[in-house]
Design goal:
four-stranded antiparallel sheet; alpha/beta; elongated; Metallo-beta-lactamase, Chain A; six-stranded mixed sheet; about 220 residues; 7 helices; single chain
């Protein structure tokens, strides 16, 4: 996971800083990009940072104030101009569906890919697969605002193939049992413990993105 801040200015952009937008680069883990908030000029900032809209998989909005939102129509419609057919998940507070539908209709625009909109009204898990889980919690702001906790799941221990070879152990059909750390009797009568050939479990990382909030219990929990 790698974070890139595309904008950190509040309210309006400055000559040096764009408004709120953060890319979470998970291309190494799953070949995709996740975007948190989408202030104006976000797609230009993505171009400067060498991020392709075609790699965008999930877009999370903390809240619907303009400095976190007004770049969204451009990102969505530009993605269509790229003839990108991969689906996009859009997560945000209730109202985001109406905003997108209104902008698309009035501007006579269209999307060439499936857009799955998830509107948030309470704390929940918004995404989970075998690698990540993303939780949302309601924070305290003038409008409904959600913080996100990104949890990378622990990676299982890997087999030490070199050590197995040194001990003249052919993996073959034993692979699954060795990965589980089971004790196995080999054909030559040797008793081996699979745990002796496993590396360390790689602990997953955790990241919290809060958006706008005053200090509150939910921000601490995230």
């Amino acid at each position: 996971m790698k974070l890139t801040f595309l904008g950190t200015s509040a309210g309006s952009p400055t000559a040096q800083r764009n408004v709120s937008s953060i890319v979470l680069d998970v291309r190494q883990e799953r070949g995709r990009l996740w975007l948190f908030d989408c202030g104006e000029t976000t797609q230009m900032q993505m171009q400067k940072a060498k991020f392709s809209l075609s790699k965008l998989e999930i877009l999370f909005l903390t809240h619907l104030h303009g400095d976190h939102l007004f770049g969204l129509p451009g990102v969505l419609t530009s993605r269509s101009l790229m003839q990108n057919q991969s689906s996009l998940i859009l997560v945000g507070p209730k109202g985001i569906k109406q905003f997108i539908e209104t902008v698309i209709e009035i501007s006579d625009s269209w999307l060439t890919y499936p857009l799955n909109i998830i509107e948030l009204e309470k704390d929940c898990t918004v995404f989970e697969d075998n690698l990540f889980r993303v939780e949302a919690k309601l924070l305290q702001h003038r409008v409904p605002c959600f913080g996100y906790r990104i949890i990378e799941k622990d990676l299982p221990a890997t087999l030490n193939i070199d050590k197995l070879k040194q001990d003249n152990i052919e993996i073959g059909s034993l692979y699954s049992d060795l990965k589980k750390g089971k004790t196995i009797i080999l054909d030559d009568g040797r008793l081996i413990n699979g745990l002796d050939y496993l590396g360390q479990i790689k602990k997953g990382r955790k990241l919290a993105i809060l958006g706008d909030t005053i200090p509150c219990e939910a921000s601490i929990e995230l």
